[in-house]
Amino acid sequence: MIRTEWYELAVDGGRTLKFPTMGPQPGEPKHTEQSDITAATEVYSTVPQQYGGIIKRGAWCWISTGNVLEITALRTGQTIATYGFVEPRGYENCCIRCVEELFPQNNETVLLAISLECFSAAESGCSLVAIYSIERNQVLSCMELPLHITALAFVSSNCCRRSLLQNFDGCIAVGSEEGVILLLDLNINKLINTCDERLKAPIGQLTDDIVKCRIVDYNLQLAEIHRTFREARQDGVNFGLQVEAINDPCAVQSLLPIDLTLGLAVGTEDGRLILYDLAELQIVHNGGRLPQPQRRLAPIVKMSYIEPVDDPRCCLYVWALHDTNVNLTAVMHTVVYDKRVAEDDGFYYFECFCAAASCLVLPLEDKKCVPIGCQSINKLAFPSPHNISLNGSIFNKTEAEENGYCLCAISWYSPQEEKNKLLIFDLNQWYREEMRNYYEDSTTNPSYLAGYVLSKRECALSLYVDPNTVAYFNTLQRFEEHFYPNSLSFGAYFLSLY
């Protein structure tokens, strides 16, 4: 297990809520006959897997069981919406595999992209991606893809600058078991308007429209790509770009759009970290497997990235969580670029990739465990007349160094110990320790790490540290440790079903 100080965290019983049990959905049988059970075992070899996540910046959560999705308010436990992807709505033998929040900074509406795995014989080689509006409790669109989807990630408008993607009205990245990566145009405003018109109709539509997706390869002539894009819009079908193929194709386990580089990080089943330049839709780095002695088939299941405040280089750090089913390892990679480019609106990005390499390896557990999350948390100082811009945000460099923080929160569950664990990494403190490797000193606990054990014994579906609650203790004692991560106070949301 990782070498650090561990602190017990108690769950606030006054703010603990029990969610109501999901009821049967339209089209679902209330009673199951023996013939239904026999047929079901041919489709599902086990009980449908339950997944969950926290959305709307800690306000709501989603929970899926089989083909049913439920949205619940975290503060009240109230059910916001429930939707079943069932046969009367046009779905047959589908199961929810991935859920991704779209436009997370939008306060007016909450949209989700939901990937569905199809088990019917006619659709054995496809998956569906449904765009779901929580407030309307409607599927705005459902696209069929000839792939087995394993990962989804929303790509922001900042990440789409300087590329073909800037023509998209909302973009989502799709990773597949086949190793294919697609960038899909959501055409979101048209979808919302069409849905609102449909809701006003005197006779409601009972089934969801499932449409094909017109996919083109990135290396086609630019004029041909634009022509196909316009035709897809005119024909009312979805449009997707297939980026450069991965050498030695391998299943995609995780996706991480990176606004700072106008890029996309891909974690594969064989443990490679692959970096794409979305402006060119090409790979700039293909590598990043675990170093010895941890090297083995170690899929990258979670990722996040952080940017240092005061590093003179144009660089960032990508965290990759490797799960081998017998141990869990976190690896931090340095990604360096040649120059910084500033836009007129205050946003800036890095250009001209130079190099990427692992710089810190943390052995989290030496036994089987369940990875939960990998979250980056950054705080900069408040605006003032002498502030400068950092990636679209305004901050004062001196205040940021003294009061800001740059953290990564890694969480997992240990079945053997029956404990949920949270590890906080402090990038600023790691810099103060001269960026030392974890293995350089085996006698002391690194001051850039702090571990927390949650008193709840159930495995969490999701754990979200609220960035607005993170603060350093104000104390006159141990002032030299003021910046250590164990001097933090914070609030976190813990999502569990039991």
TrEMBL record:
Transmembrane region(s): none
Segments forming a coiled coil: none
Domain (ELYS beta-propeller): residue spans on this chain: 57-455
Domain of life: Eukaryota
Pfam families given in the database record: ELYS-bb (PF16687)
Protein's name according to its UniProt entry: Protein ELYS
Gene source species: Ceratitis capitata (Mediterranean fruit fly)
Lineage of the species this protein comes from: Eukaryota, Metazoa, Ecdysozoa, Arthropoda, Hexapoda
Gene that this sequence comes from: ELYS
